[in-house]
Amino acid sequence: MLFNLTHLQVKLTPEAYGALWPTDRSMRHAIFMDDDYWQNLPRYLIARCPLCGHEYQENLDTYTLFKWNRAANGKHVFHDKGNSVHCEHFVRVHHFINFNGIEPKEKGFEILGCEVPHLMQTLLPDDVGSWAVMHALPICRMEEEGFVPQYTVYMLTYYAGAQDVEVLMDRLRKTSPHWEAFYPPSRQSGELWWDLTHWVREGRLFWLAPDLADLPIQRDGDAAFPYGEIQGRREPYHFSYRSGSLPPFKR
């Protein structure tokens, strides 16, 4: 399902976007892109801190899947060149790319993860005051008629009191030392962590209200929670420019 289409920013034509790509460098990794590329990417609000209200913003390439891959240890959604600035309450951000039932035909991107967002038990323990803020944005595919929204990136940003951030990070390093290779909870022991509506009711999961232009943080009212029925692969998948295929769909 495509969420938040009104918040998608398309400011370039396919020709102008293509001109930002250097011809003598790899198309696979965003780190090789010139400053013009980064400066022309749309800047999005990712989350608002539930403690201090700080706006976490980042430059994201929502024109295509080409540059999307694993994030930098949960410090950013897209890349550290996205000019993100965090407050003292920020813990980590975890993103999930959902293909919305479409098998991508693009080459030149590499994704490791699962399509359906879930919460991380390590970052929402009972003995530490911590919260997650959720948001979603469309990602386009380049078609003959231009940039067409096809995919969705879901983002869960974790926050805690300044004195507890390092406590959670220490636990995360012990349980999941390679953040980008983090595997989701098993069906038997982790079903609750897939139930996002439960965590809304528990007061641990907030979201940016998608129907309002300024995207205020929404703290309660699970009946209005828009992300409770997301479909897709729960099992980790790997899709890359090498393989060009996805594993069979499993709920």
**Strand percentage, roughly?**
15-25%
**Which runs of at least 5 residues are low in confidence (pLDDT < 50)?**
243-251
Structural class: alpha+beta
Summarize model confidence as the mean pLDDT. Answer: 83
Helix and strand succession?
HHEEEEEEHHHEEE
**Could you say how many structural domains there are in total?**
1
Radius of gyration in whole Å, from Cα?
A: 18 Å
Sequence of strands across the biggest β-sheet: 3-6-5-7-8
Q: What is the helix fraction of residues, given as a range?
A: 10-25%
Find the count of extended strands (DSSP E, 2+ residues): 9
Report on the biggest sheet: 5 strands, mixed
Q: Please work out how many helical segments DSSP would assign.
A: 5
List the helices and strands and how they pair.
Blueprint: H1 14-18, H2 35-40, E1 43-48, E2 55-59, E3 90-98, E4 111-113, E5 130-143, E6 146-160, H3 165-175, H4 187-194, H5 196-201, E7 205-208, E8 217-218, E9 237-239
Parallel strand pairs: 5-7
Antiparallel strand pairs: 1-2, 3-6, 4-9, 5-6, 7-8
What does this structure look like?
The protein has 251 residues and is an alpha+beta fold. The protein has one domain. Helix content is 14%, strand content 24%. The protein contains 5 helices and 9 strands; from the N terminus they run ααββββββαααβββ. It has helices spanning 14-18, 35-40, 165-175, 187-194, 196-201, and strands at residues 43-48, 55-59, 90-98, 111-113, 130-143, 146-160, 205-208, 217-218, 237-239. A 5-stranded mixed β-sheet has the order 3-6-5-7-8. Strands 1-2 form a two-stranded antiparallel sheet. A hairpin with a 6-residue loop joins β1 and β2. The protein is globular and about 50 Å long. The model is unreliable at 243-251 (pLDDT under 50).
